[in-house]
Design a protein that fits this description.
The chain is α+β, with helices and mostly antiparallel strands. It has 3 helices and 21 strands. Strands 13, 15, 16, 17, 18, 20 and 21 form a 7-stranded antiparallel β-sheet that branches. Strands 3, 5, 6, 10, 11 and 12 form a 6-stranded mixed β-sheet that branches. A hairpin with a 5-residue loop joins β16 and β17.
Length: about 350
């Protein structure tokens, strides 16, 4: 018996509906796959090895610009050899100039800034800049207003240095810390400036005890990487140790000829000479350390003279290939006390270089 027309129509409708469902599922799956493709980043292939003039095969590290006033805007580095390990999540709230309004009626509005990276014996010391601002300028003349500034260890809160400044107007003032603690150089690490307004001898405090005190946090370093530019650590032949029947008392760091060389540590120029193998070279007698720092194969003689004072990060010359050099590079040495060919010993500087490289 043939099905009735109404039943036949019902079957057609069911098949048609099932077809529509299948089409919808297919479209949904396609859209999902496309979205996943668009949101999944593609991985670039590894950079091919290549050589620039005077630079060996391998990816060269890009150096960042340094802000002489407030320090790098890059995330913190991660030094582990001779330096502390900065926390990448530690963002200095007052890297830029913050304004803080204290709740106390006697308190001024305070603008303060701290350079986020500070280097020993350099043009980028630990530095706090601040301004007091009262709506009524007469307040400065009617009261004895001072600023107490303390340098503290971030972790323990130990006070390393304290100073008090007279404040009689809203002009910007500046306090520096040279990194010396009880006559000795402080260790690399995290520190902070804490600023407290004093009105007629009384400290003005914020009612909200959880609010940050005026001032700011900073990282303190004792060395800076000696090449201010792209560089490469080379291969096995660049390493410290004997090679080719002769001693190799440093590490070779490759960079383009003409790349600036800077003082890894402030101090005095001990030697600025030319030698057949070393080419033009400079030796720095480090400040607040018994070590010496040696730079070989410079492009030309440094303009500095023996006895000249240099600061950490100061340009002392340029990368070159003078003397017995294959390709433009810096041959860098570190010598223990009492120093370079004065009874000291050269030791492998690679770990130090990589540590300084991470934050410089």
């Amino acid at each position: 018996m043939k099905p009735q027309p109404s039943v036949r129509n019902l079957r057609v409708l069911v098949v048609f509906a099932m077809a529509l469902v299948c089409i919808a599922i297919g479209v949904g799956l396609a859209a999902s796959a496309q979205a996943q493709t668009e949101t999944t980043p593609s991985l670039d292939p590894a950079p091919s090895a290549g050589k620039e003039a005077g630079t060996p095969a391998g990816a060269a590290k890009q150096r960042s610009e340094l802000d002489p006033a407030f320090g790098d805007q890059d995330p913190d580095g991660d030094g582990s050899v001779g330096d502390f390990e900065p926390n990448p999540d530690d963002r200095d709230r007052d890297r830029d100039r913050d304004r803080i309004d204290l709740d106390d009626a006697k308190a001024p509005s305070i603008r303060s800034s701290v350079n986020r990276k500070a280097f020993f014996d350099s043009d980028r010391p630990a530095r706090l800049k601040f301004e007091f601002d009262y709506e009524d300028e007469e307040y400065f003349r009617e009261h004895d207003i001072e600023a107490k500034v303390e340098v503290k260890r971030r972790k323990s809160g130990e006070v390393l240095e304290r100073s008090t400044l007279k404040v009689n107007d809203s002009a910007q003032r500046e306090v520096k810390w040279n990194g010396v603690e009880k006559g000795k150089l402080a260790k690399p690490g995290r520190y902070q400036f804490e600023l407290t307004p004093l009105v007629d001898g009384d400290a003005v405090k914020m009612r909200n005890k959880r609010a940050p005190a005026p001032g700011g946090n900073f990282n303190f370093y004792t060395h800076q990487f000696p090449i201010d530019g792209n560089h490469d650590y080379g291969e096995k032949a660049a390493r410290f140790g004997p090679r080719g029947g002769r001693k190799h008392l440093g590490h070779d760091v490759f960079a383009k000829c003409g790349t600036p060389l800077v003082a890894a540590r402030g101090g005095k120029i001990q030697a600025n000479q030319f030698q057949e193998s070393a080419g033009f070279y400079v030796v720095i007698d480090g400040e607040e350390t018994d070590e010496d720092y040696v730079y070989y194969h410079m492009k030309k003689r440094s303009k500095l003279k023996s006895g000249d004072k240099v600061k950490t990060g100061q340009v002392i010359g340029k990368v070159g290939d003078t003397g017995n050099a294959f390709g433009c590079h810096l041959h860098f040495e570190r010598w223990t006390k009492p120093g370079w060919f004065e009874g000291g010993k050269a030791y492998d500087p690679l770990d130090s270089l990589k540590s300084w490289d991470k934050y410089s």
